From TrEMBL:
<dbReference type="Pfam" id="PF00271">
    <property type="entry name" value="Helicase_C"/>
</dbReference>
<feature type="short sequence motif" description="Q motif">
    <location>
        <begin position="77"/>
        <end position="105"/>
    </location>
</feature>
<feature type="region of interest" description="Disordered">
    <location>
        <begin position="1"/>
        <end position="71"/>
    </location>
</feature>
<feature type="domain" description="DEAD-box RNA helicase Q">
    <location>
        <begin position="77"/>
        <end position="105"/>
    </location>
</feature>
<dbReference type="Pfam" id="PF00270">
    <property type="entry name" value="DEAD"/>
</dbReference>
<dbReference type="InterPro" id="IPR027417">
    <property type="entry name" value="P-loop_NTPase"/>
</dbReference>
<protein>
    <submittedName>
        <fullName>DEAD/DEAH box helicase</fullName>
    </submittedName>
</protein>
<keyword id="KW-0067">ATP-binding</keyword>
<feature type="compositionally biased region" description="Low complexity">
    <location>
        <begin position="1"/>
        <end position="21"/>
    </location>
</feature>
<dbReference type="InterPro" id="IPR014001">
    <property type="entry name" value="Helicase_ATP-bd"/>
</dbReference>
<comment type="similarity">
    <text>Belongs to the DEAD box helicase family.</text>
</comment>
<feature type="region of interest" description="Disordered">
    <location>
        <begin position="436"/>
        <end position="529"/>
    </location>
</feature>
<feature type="domain" description="Helicase ATP-binding">
    <location>
        <begin position="108"/>
        <end position="281"/>
    </location>
</feature>
<keyword id="KW-0547">Nucleotide-binding</keyword>
<feature type="compositionally biased region" description="Low complexity">
    <location>
        <begin position="509"/>
        <end position="518"/>
    </location>
</feature>
<dbReference type="InterPro" id="IPR001650">
    <property type="entry name" value="Helicase_C-like"/>
</dbReference>
<dbReference type="InterPro" id="IPR044742">
    <property type="entry name" value="DEAD/DEAH_RhlB"/>
</dbReference>
Length: 529
């Protein structure tokens, strides 16, 4: 979260928190550390219901019925009153951050005191500072030894790791602490060099960290504080075996802070095994029932789907459009540019530099429409995203929650639109019910007034834009739906409608829409290590 977003939402309640893990008692008197890394095993998640299936019920875990933590947002405490040093509060003030968010109010005092913290909250509520500030406060005053970091933040994706480093580096510098980003897709030699010299805090994705440990460039035996950020997403990606191996390499008395938007069975296993007498803070229910977020379903004929998407993407303001596959994201962004919409793709098949450029262009406004896959959903933290569009309905309710969480962040308002064909209507209703959402449903054509009323849709310029941000489109495959060059045949949507391999895995997944019976492709996700 940027300081501007924090400042704008300082007077409004926000939601976010994540679970933590520990393995010994005596948290208030001593530090503890934990880590995670490694290559995830394939992880299959439930598919969306088919049309002939009964309405699903969301999986329940031991933390689903936690009482909601209430904080005083009318007269919130200052950061100093939460236990932070004046130097940190001064640095926050310089960045325009004066008032803590609810997740920070709820968790910082216990984290500063050395307790394990298990936090559940909606995305975009300020959790990076909720774990980052206590970590900085507790680690200052001593130096890291070569190859032995003292603080560890584990995250599921490169983009999220970069966001965390960007947010915490200026604050850590005020206390003479060093941070290092450790993630796949980035030069490993520089990461090894930094670790060999000694780094206080490492922000890492699991696979790359385990690789560096195997190369003897990193040793976790000095880690005092470990943070598991987006723990549920790491579970979805199959990282839990790696997480457990890394936590087992950290001192048993280390402090662990675990934050997540949902606390289902896999995350509960981590909590039970690795957290010692954790302070539990539940600031939001695991649903998308955010009061500042509107949910709509646009049902349209298959032949009208691309024209509808085009008009929505041509709107003013930042828009994120989610597709199911990498090919669908590339194809859709290319076709949007051909009709005059400034769009860029973001998915696991692009290089890190390409992804960085796409996000930078989206943030500075030179690109107004970001076309992303689920793998990228957790790494997109951009202010003022006012509309999220599910071009392809998500595979399950958790994906819906995290895609939708890219808007209405930190108390801001936003809208979420799911585009469905008539064949999708029933499975989409079931999925949204499982997500705790009661959307407004509309039967629309591309030029229906309600489309403009809800999204601000308008006709694109029709003037083709040059291909932006570089990078080649994945090679299309031959199928009945298109010719050998990937050009759609008559009656087909103008992007990615042929069977492709989903970014989450499985052959036969359609990037333009799910199968007619509402089934989803396989759910093995691209690894981001």
């Amino acid at each position: 979260m940027t300081s501007a977003a924090q400042s704008r939402a300082a007077s409004r309640p926000a939601r976010n928190s994540r679970p933590s893990s520990g393995v010994s008692a005596g948290h208030s008197a001593r530090n503890r550390g934990g880590q995670q890394s490694g290559r995830p095993a394939a992880n299959r998640t439930a598919r969306p219901p088919r049309a002939n299936r009964s309405t699903p019920t969301a999986a329940r875990g031991p933390f689903d019925d936690l009482p909601i933590t209430i904080v005083d947002t009318e007269n919130p405490p200052t950061f100093t009153e939460l236990g932070l040093a004046p130097q940190l509060t001064t640095a926050l003030s310089r960045a325009g951050i004066e008032t803590p968010f609810p997740v920070q109010i709820a968790t910082i005092p216990d984290a500063v005191a050395g307790r394990d913290v298990l936090g559940r909250a909606a995305t975009g509520a300020g959790k990076t500072l909720a774990f980052g500030l206590p970590m900085i406060a507790r680690l200052e005053g001593t130096d890291a030894r070569p190859r032995r970091p003292r603080g560890l933040v584990l995250v599921p994706t490169r983009e999220l790791a970069m966001q965390v480093v960007d947010a915490l580096t200026p604050l850590a510098n005020t206390r003479d602490l060093s941070l290092r980003l450790v993630a796949g897709g980035l030069p490993i030699a520089k990461q090894i060099s930094s670790l060999v010299k000694g780094v206080d805090i490492v922000v890492a994705t699991p696979g790359r960290l385990e690789d560096l440990i195997a190369r003897r460039a990193c040793d976790l035996s000095d880690v005092q504080i470990t943070v598991l950020d987006e723990a549920d997403h790491m579970a979805d990606l199959g990282f839990l075996p790696v997480v457990r191996r890394l936590l087992d390499q950290t001192p048993s008395g280390g402090q662990r802070l675990l934050f997540s938007a949902t606390l289902d069975g896999d995350v509960a296993t981590l909590v039970t095994k690795y957290l010692t007498d954790p302070v539990i803070k539940a600031l939001a229910l695991p649903t998308a029932a955010v009061t500042t977020m509107e949910h709509h379903v646009f049902t349209t004929d298959l032949g009208d789907k691309f024209p509808l998407i085009t008009r929505i993407a041509a709107r003013d303001g930042r828009t994120i459009l989610f597709t199911r596959t990498k090919y669908g994201a590339e194809r859709l962004s290319d076709n949007l540019r051909k009709v005059g919409v400034s769009a860029a793709p973001l998915h696991g098949g692009r290089t890190q530099s390409q992804r960085n450029r796409a996000l930078a262009a989206f943030k500075d406004g030179s690109v107004s429409a970001l076309v992303a896959t689920d793998v990228a959903a957790r790494g997109i933290h951009v202010d003022d995203v006012t509309l999220v569009v599910h071009v392809d309905p998500p595979a399950d309710e958790k994906d819906y929650l995290h895609r939708s969480g890219r808007t209405a962040r930190a108390g801001e308002s936003g809208r979420v639109v799911t585009i469905a064909t008539p064949a999708d209507e029933r499975p989409v209703r079931q999925l949204l019910k499982a997500a705790g959402v009661q959307p407004t449903e509309h039967r629309v054509s591309p030029e229906a007034p309600v489309v403009s009323d809800v999204t601000g849709a308008r006709s694109p310029s029709g003037v083709a834009l040059p291909k932006q941000l570089g990078g080649a489109t994945p090679a299309p495959t031959r199928s009945a739906g298109g010719d050998r060059h990937g050009r759609p045949q008559s009656g087909r949507p103008a992007y990615g409608s042929r069977p492709q391999r989903s970014e989450r895995g499985g052959r036969g997944a359609r990037s333009a829409r799910p199968s007619a019976d509402g089934g989803a492709p396989g759910t093995r996700r691209d690894r981001q290590m």
